[in-house]
Amino acid sequence: MNTKLARHFIFIAILSLAPFSLALAETAPVTQATNIDSASPQGTNTADQPPIISDGKNWYFSWGYSRQYYAPSDIHVTQPSLGNNFTVHNVKATDFHTNIPETIDSTLNFNFFAPQENIRIGKFMDAEKTFAIEFSLDHTKYNTNLDQVAHVSGTYHNAPIDQNKPLDKNFFDYKLHNGLNHIMLNAVWLNHLYGPKQKPGDLESISRVGAGILMPHADNTIDGHANQLGPKWVNSCCFASNDWWQIRGWTVGVEVGLRYRMTESLYLELTGKEAYGVLRKVAVFEGTADQELWLTEVIMSLGYLF
User: Fold this and answer.
1) pTM of full prediction above 0.70
2) Residue 192 pairs with which residues in a beta bridge?
């Protein structure tokens, strides 16, 4: 169902942007022909005209906003001092999105890590600008749904457990809330679809394949005990058990969508992403948690070529 949602977003984008691209594509040759005829009686091949996007614009940067959808997953908790070694099965979780006014307010105050934002920095590796290498940061968020009922098995307070339990704020409130951060290196391919190539009105398909690390911020209460982490900008990163952000796993993902050139340098991008992540030794009170998860993400970005 989540994958279908991402496909619907992409399909809608094609339908909405294609008419503008086609209109630009129809008018561009007429303008070129007029200029050629007035400048040179003999005419010139339009293929020789330099594109508006100059050869110097080999880098790009984008900032975007996203929504995430998670498949149910198992979370294994180990707390030796409490006699806990149990698994919570098929846990349902959601993201923690901000509304539009909150997102605008955060952006105007240069607090770019409050929303679920997405950053891309890439460099084209060929003259045609169809292949790039890219660094990406997806500041996603993960929160287990409170008051759901899940099956719990293993050892709880040094006694066997194999039963359904409600996941309330006291027993199991598990968050990766100041970021389930996907930090990745991507290979990127672009393919021209409609409109003038590398000019305003250009519509391209874009696809990414990447891999990297997961750097979450764990904020949870397990069995009545909240985990304790250091101050955000004192113990910030990356391997200590009380660091604010901790490198705790790896991720791989694929992303497909559309990129629409609005001006010489500005573009809009709409993509859907599927990612698989493995988390190990996420901090909980006097213990750790392990998890594997599937993520579907829908991303809208504004980018700049330079």
Assistant:
1) yes
2) 204
